[in-house]
Amino acid sequence: MTPICPSILKNGLACAVLSSFVFSIMNALVKATSARIPSNEIVFFRSIIGTILMLLLMRKDRIPLSKTGVPMLALRGCFGALYMIAYFYTISSMPLLDAIILINLSPVFSIILAGIFLKEKLNNKVYWFLPIIFVGAMLTIKPFGYSTYSLVALFGVAAAMFYFVFYGYCYNYFYPVNVE
To answer: How many domains would you assign to the chain?
Structure first.
């Protein structure tokens, strides 16, 4: 089975734009749905769909379930669940733009934490880009006029940081599909 547009899917930029578009739609749907359905239920059904899709991909590519490193994968799964609960709760309880900016900053913090906890070697270019990213985020968030400082925001960012650190650790030792 070949994809509809294989040449587009080989283009990294096109995939990044498509991914951003799909996640924007998901975030808007989560925000709209959270007015009537609790964020924990949204997480549950999103996780069921994700699990089914991952199992189908693993079956299609004949990738076995990992039998090694199960405790670390379980810990990664716990952090992933915590991240998703915090992510959806943050989207449901904060203005959408503020929530998305905070959530999208988490990989930046994860880069720093991966260097500290996982002893990953950071490229020297990273040290030049981090300050630029922080300045851009501060201009977008307007921290002195930021209206949604809360424990929820901090919890969402912290959960995302630890999720990405464990994701990076597990990604180095397991099939990528087993880590997803």
So the answer is: 1
Residue 136 sits in which domain range?
A: 11-179
Assigned domain for 86 exists: yes
Under a CB-based contact definition with an 8 Å cutoff, are residues 69 and 174 in contact? yes
pLDDT, mean of each 10-residue run, the chain (180 residues): 56 78 88 90 91 89 81 79 82 79 73 75 80 76 60 69 66 55
Taken as a whole, the chain contains a residue count of 180
DSSP string, 60-122: HTTPPPP-SSHHHHHHHHHHHHHHHHHHHHHHHHS-HHHHHHHHHHHHHHHHHHHHHHS-PPP
DSSP state of 148: -
Residue 5 within a domain: no
